[in-house]
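Bench notes, bay 3.
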Amino acid sequence: MIAIVGGGVCGLSIGWYLARAGRNVTIFERGEAGRGATWAAAGLLAAQTEAEPGEEWLLPLMLESRAMWPAFARELEAASGMGVDLREEGVLAVALDRDEAERLAFLFDYHRSLGLDMEWCDGAEARALEPHLSPKTAAGVLSRRDRQVDNRKVAVALRDAFMAAGGMLCENTEVKEIVVAGRRVSGVRIGAREFPAECVILAAGAWSRGIKGLPEELRPAVRPVKGQMLSLKMSEAAPLIRHVIWGNGAYLVPRRDGTLLIGATVEEQQFDTQMTAGAVHELLRRAREALPGIDELPIAEMWAGLRPTSRDDAPLLGPSAVDGLVIATGHHRNGILLAPVTARAIADYVLTGRMPDSLAPFAPSRFAA
């Protein structure tokens, strides 16, 4: 048996790939599958807009996985029988004053220096794309290649596709320990019961480091980073925006059903997932400055999630120093974006014993020292 610890977007994607290849796969999820960081995300596939100085080494992986998403979405929709709402209007980053415009221009030049296809807009051009933007909008940068997907629909579809392919899903089942004999994994322990496994894939997100059984130096260097978000309800027939809007310290993500997501904070708060008044106020303030028309929209939902974050904000992907133990965690804010490339690489490794050279920079061993 192949045991996958964690039923988020990456665990489910890997499990689906392996199950449809005919392998005996069981996913153990401490809660409900797809209801952790996957459910709390915004579904952004914004590899270009999110590219930051110092993360040049991560960009090729993000671009590769973004390019995989259209085929991944089609296959997932066919396998599950449900849509995942992959949208391709693009992402519009905006600046509301001169200082923000200067910073946006710096990022625009930086992105263009990397060969990324970005389009500069003055304030009038940005408002022509999205007429409900603030009259103060000074400039914008349009990334037509960036996308979004409904991450919650993806989670449900992956669960259904995995089980339809013959996978076994054990929800509300917390793995307390990865069982290791010598330097070889032999299974997982749940309560007093041990489940033998020839391979264990650790994809438990922010909880990956806390699972017992591994020597301290081999535990994944991953911590939780809290993100608070909320959603408003627009008119489905006449939404305020169609592009994802990025700027003023927040992002606004429109869904096809009229839902408008607003996010997200970045907080070092361990495993705390409480909503706070200050965070909600700040998100709404920043969103309202960019899109004044939200004033009369009803609040639909508020929530917080825990991003699994490594020391360098990049994922840990590949085999560990323990034979049979494979790591797939630490995706930080890019779990949805990187799901296709993660699933393909980890599933191929389990099936063939080979990892692509392009993923060598993301080996878990980079933190061994």
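Next record in the batch:
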Amino acid sequence: MKVSVVTVSRNSAVTLPDTLRSVATQSHPNVEHIVIDGASTDATCEVVKRYGTHVAKFLSEPDRGIYDAMNKGLAMATGDIVGFLNADDRYAEEHVLERVVRAMDKDNLDALFGDVAFFRADDPQRVVRRYRSDRFHPRRLAWGWMPAHPALFMRRSVYQRVGPFRTDYRIAGDFELIARVFKDEKIRYRHLAEVLVMMRTGGVSTSGWRNTLILNQEVLRACRENGIPTNLLKILSKYPAKFLEYLWP
């Protein structure tokens, strides 16, 4: 099966080479890497030209935010399976996509997700947190739980059925799409109990209390718009468990 990996970038010249190499060195033989750049003003485009010999499609133009850029990549994807890898992240090792394809093909899955390990930019070998996606279940959407998005792989047919990312969300557009996909619990999925993606700390959804406030407001809105009964106390109740991820990474 063909895997489309979509990377969205914006002024990512420093970190993008690691991401490009991470995809280029995957052992799975049929990978389509799509890079969507938001008209960067740094050397991002030059980095793609220099390191992106395995990039199948590259687009650099202004966009209306990260989810608009993701939708552009999704529209260009031709793979049976689609995954999103951020421009400052990398796959944990070279066989990640091979194992994803094998598992999804064997069990005829619509979706598969694994864990994400967070590391500091100044100390790439030190894992400071592990996002354990096994805590997710469709019934836990009301509590704001979701699988780690960079470690989530879904068949392109799922996106064709439920539609693209909502561009009127600033931070929780990935949660809203996951709510749309998993709310009826009919999707065939499973968790792969291993780290699939290495992720730098400091992403938009974890940077500061203002973004955390916006995130939780949007999660509450996404649940309500998808008919999932919840309230803000329910959504906030997941944070003690998330704090433990820092204590035992």
